[in-house]
């Protein structure tokens, strides 16, 4: 507003009007002060905003608290619009906030949060810890300084009361939703068991066929061993009583027995197991089983893993049933 300097302009005075005699004339009036109208120069909106406005700059990031929750306001880089993000300090993390920012504006290619001295803050940091101090927000290689409003520190008694309230709310939530949670978990276990059984069914059929063939071969090998021992005993008896005498065959039987002992000892050295008929049968059965599995492309490792998962799921399901009772 411009004020003009100098003396006020005066009106030219007129001569007094003649009045009839005998009347009392009122005292002359004081001249009315004049109001000077001044024209504003320049842009009126600019002058008002420059003198009286409190609008936040469009590229500044602000943090305010509304209903006890932090409200982060920033300008989206691609749309050039101000957007507000409500943060839950106890649940949200730095990583979740950056993901929400990128989901809101696809033009955000890179985003990171740094400390005031330039160190990057991990994505697992809670927003409650982040908002305790000032930080820097980097969006598409552009750094913004963010100032966090200072909150009043709670007293020790108030903080203890808040922790007790949180603990009580957590216990109430657990008690009210425990049955619902158990039902959901039981339903999930039943679905998992059905899925595992569906995967095991074709493998069980292939395994049954391989086991039948391996059992037949193992039994045939045992019968072949019995036949070989019978032939050996018959040959020794024929040579002792019909061909030679006992004096000649006695050393032969001794060396045959010693050779069998050497065979049994060699079996222990190779397998680290005692030579028993049940151990020999099991070992031979597994040998035939794995050989047939490779021929039919039966994955033994996958089958064992599925069986273990099924057993664990059944144990968990039984435990859930026991807890409900």
From TrEMBL:
InterPro entries: MCU_C, MCU_fam. Residues 14-31 have a biased composition (Pro residues). Its main location: membrane. The keyword GTP-binding does not apply. Residues 104-306 form the Calcium uniporter protein C-terminal domain. Residues 1-32 are annotated as: Disordered. It is found in: Membrane; Mitochondrion inner membrane. The chain crosses the membrane at residues 221-240, 252-270. The keyword Ion transport applies. It is a multi-pass membrane protein. Keywords: Calcium, Calcium transport, Ion transport, Membrane, Mitochondrion, Mitochondrion inner membrane, Transmembrane, Transmembrane helix, Transport. Belongs to the MCU (TC 1.A.77) family. This is Calcium uniporter regulatory subunit MCUb. It comes from Felis catus (Cat).
